[in-house]
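> example.struct
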């Protein structure tokens, strides 16, 4: 499991871990039942504190992405990917609704808003 931590982002380290693990699960790179590294092993491999990894694992468990059993370890749960993607789409729609309202109120053209969205969407590619 390759996790890349960047000190140049505004995101906390635990959030970078959760985002990357969620992406691996959604993409199918990690499948239901797959074991994930122990907190100590992951902390050591990415050179962060065990407490940071623990916080990430707690969030992943709370969101239903992993299941942790004492003595056995942590495993990818049978999380419904469609449910998660639907939830993320709903959040994106809320933000786009706000952008559309701001655009209309300030006479920013639809073409300009589309251009800005494309710019942000393709920014890291």
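> example.seq
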């Amino acid at each position: 499991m390759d996790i890349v931590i960047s000190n140049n982002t505004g995101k906390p380290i635990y959030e970078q871990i959760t985002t990357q693990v969620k992406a691996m699960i959604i993409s199918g790179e990690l499948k239901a039942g797959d074991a994930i590294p122990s907190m100590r092993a992951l902390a050591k491999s990415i050179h962060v504190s065990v407490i940071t990894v623990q916080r990430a694992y707690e969030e992943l468990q709370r969101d239903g992405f992993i299941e942790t059993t004492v003595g056995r370890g942590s495993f990818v749960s049978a999380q419904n990917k469609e449910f998660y993607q639907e939830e993320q789409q709903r959040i994106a729609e809320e933000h786009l609704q706000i952008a559309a309202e701001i655009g209309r109120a300030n006479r920013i053209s639809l073409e300009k808003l589309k251009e800005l969205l494309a710019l942000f969407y393709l920014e890291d590619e």
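> remarks
The CA atoms of residues 117 and 123 lie 10 Å apart.
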